[in-house]
Automatic annotation (TrEMBL):
The active site is at K272, R346. The lineage of its organism: Bacteria, Pseudomonadati, Pseudomonadota, Alphaproteobacteria, Geminicoccales. It catalyses: Release of an N-terminal amino acid, Xaa-|-Yaa-, in which Xaa is preferably Leu, but may be other amino acids including Pro although not Arg or Lys, and Yaa may be Pro. Amino acid amides and methyl esters are also readily hydrolyzed, but rates on arylamides are exceedingly low; Release of an N-terminal amino acid, preferentially leucine, but not glutamic or aspartic acids. This is Probable cytosol aminopeptidase. GO terms for molecular function: aminopeptidase activity. Residues 340-347 form the Cytosol aminopeptidase domain. The keyword Protease applies.
Length: 496
């Protein structure tokens, strides 16, 4: 994993240095200093480079008049202005450039002197976040003989030249660490990240000042979480519910975050095809996003009350597994006909949503789940599905989605769709009408358990894992939802 360190001193005289320059040819203070020391080298290089688009890196190897091994001119800015996301993605591009050049260590100078609408700390902090996220790799199970933690050419260290020092980047580090830790959880194989192991990871948040309570099977039975227990009854591993509370906002009702944590999903008796089943280790990505969001708000000491509740279980076929046709009574008292045991996430969430609503009386409640394959059919791997019973909460989520690049597309709820989950023998059934509106069927099922609380459901099945490189993530777990939720808390739920 690449280290990012802060150096409050001057530019080094040797090694690799990266200096920001404007898209209009303007020089940052660091670039101007090096231009003077090199007899105008930087200005000449910019004139010869032609078009200077945001994100372009101009590589000057053994620059004349300087003792540096390499000087990289990083073009920053657009005629219409840049966003924080633009700067984050710029950090990601920079990491990839360093990798392609096989530069192991580099120093990034401040943007001071460029007019971007951000302070130097804000701009470099955003770039540092993007760099950290793009540099992430899950190498825990790679032995030294196969490359281990490091591959040839991987950047090892990026120094940020900021006079404000390490404290200035503490909030950025908190968010980056939270996303990377969520990615770690999603990447872990199911024989390692069992429901118990996930619960123990949640318990470790107590070291960050988060109040954590772990509910084991006996407690779940006493509470009447029969829908969650029905999902888990086919597995030899017991289920858990982890409750994480961050109290940074006085006596206000909390924002509640709820996550689906199916640590492995075979489909149960309605078993999935063998091809691709190994990917079902990441059916707990919604719970990982909630865990990561709690880590982020605690890490930056958010002035808000946030509660995260995750249901953790395995969905396995066995002689004790629930069967298609079974009827179960949820914690809320509603009876559910189980038509397809592979629609298990909504059963687990039904009890966890009801429990969270009743216990914490939240201001708003958001659940995240890799709930349906249907959302991938609808939206591809470009955006997550958003369902909401509250227009204000939906708009808030859309706003922070655009800011973070963790995009959401609003999909419908409504009485017409509730007909899809009517059962002939119970209050509701756990699937809709075959291939019709499958994502909405899952969402309206969950809606039966949220009451009048402002609520949103994020179906992140398409976004939790990527098979292609993205601006802020390589192939594998994305940590989708952590930055989205953290930005939502920061923008709309923190005390001012």
């Amino acid at each position: 994993m690449m280290e990012i360190k802060v150096e409050p001193g001057r530019l080094p005289e040797r090694g690799t240095v990266i200096v920001p320059v404007g898209h209009d040819g303007a020089l940052s203070a660091a670039a101007a200093g090096l231009d003077g020391a090199s007899g105008g080298l930087i200005r000449r290089a910019l004139e010869a480079a032609g078009e200077k688009k945001h994100g372009r890196v101009i590589d000057l190897f053994l620059p004349s008049g300087l003792m540096l091994e390499r000087l990289l001119l990083l073009v920053v800015g657009k005629p219409e202005g840049v966003s924080r996301l633009d700067l984050e993605q710029l950090g990601g591009k920079l990491v990839q450039k360093l990798k392609s050049l096989q530069v192991r260590e580099a120093h990034l100078a401040s943007i001071e002197g460029l007019e971007l609408g951000f302070s130097p700390v804000e701009a470099i902090g955003a770039m540092a976040l993007g760099a950290q996220l793009r540099a992430y790799r899950f190498t825990k199970y790679r032995t030294a003989a196969e490359g281990g933690d490091e591959e040839e050419g991987e950047p090892a260290r990026l120094w940020l030249l900021l006079p404000e020092g390490e404290a200035a980047l503490a909030p950025v580090r908190a968010v980056a660490d939270a996303v990377c830790r969520a990615r770690d959880l999603v990447s872990e194989p199911a024989n390692v990240l069992t429901p118990k192991a996930f619960a123990e990871a949640c318990a470790d948040l107590a070291d960050m000042g988060v109040e954590v309570e772990i509910l084991a099977r006996d407690a779940l039975e006493e509470l009447g979480m029969r829908a969650l227990l029905a999902v888990a009854q086919g597995s030899a591993l017991p289920p858990y519910v982890a409750v994480m509370r961050w109290q940074g906002g006085g006596s206000e009702a909390p924002l509640a975050l709820v996550g689906k944590g199916i640590c492995f999903d075979t489909g149960g008796i309605s078993i999935k095809p063998a091809q691709g089943m190994e990917e079902m280790k990441w059916d707990m990505a919604g719970a990982a996003a909630v865990y990561g969001a709690m880590l982020a708000v605690a890490g930056r000491k958010a002035r808000a009350n946030v509660v995260g509740v995750v249901g953790l279980a395995e969905n396995m076929p066995s002689g004790t597994a629930q069967r298609p046709g079974d009827v179960i009574r949820s914690m809320a008292g509603k009876t559910i006909e189980v038509v397809n045991t592979d629609a298990e996430g909504r059963l687990l969430l039904a009890d966890v949503l009801h429990y969270t609503k009743e216990r914490f009386k939240p201001r708003a409640m958001i659940d995240l789940a890799t709930l349906t394959g249907a959302v991938i059919v609808a939206l591809g791997h470009e955006q997550a599905g958003l369902f909401a019973n509250d227009e204000s909460l939906a708009q808030q989520l859309q706003t922070v989605a655009e800011e973070t690049g963790e995009l959401l597309w609003r999909l419908p709820l409504g009485k017409a769709y509730e007909k899809h989950i009517r059962s002939d023998i119970a209050d509701i059934k756990n699937v809709g009408r075959g291939r019709e509106a499958g994502s909405t069927a899952g969402a309206v099922f969950l809606q039966q358990f949220v009451g009048d609380v402002p609520w949103a459901h994020l179906d992140i099945a398409a976004m939790a894992w990527t098979s292609r490189d993205q601006p802020l993530a390589g192939k594998g777990a994305t940590g989708f939802g952590v930055r989205l939720l953290d930005r939502l808390v920061a923008r709309y739920f923190e005390a001012r």
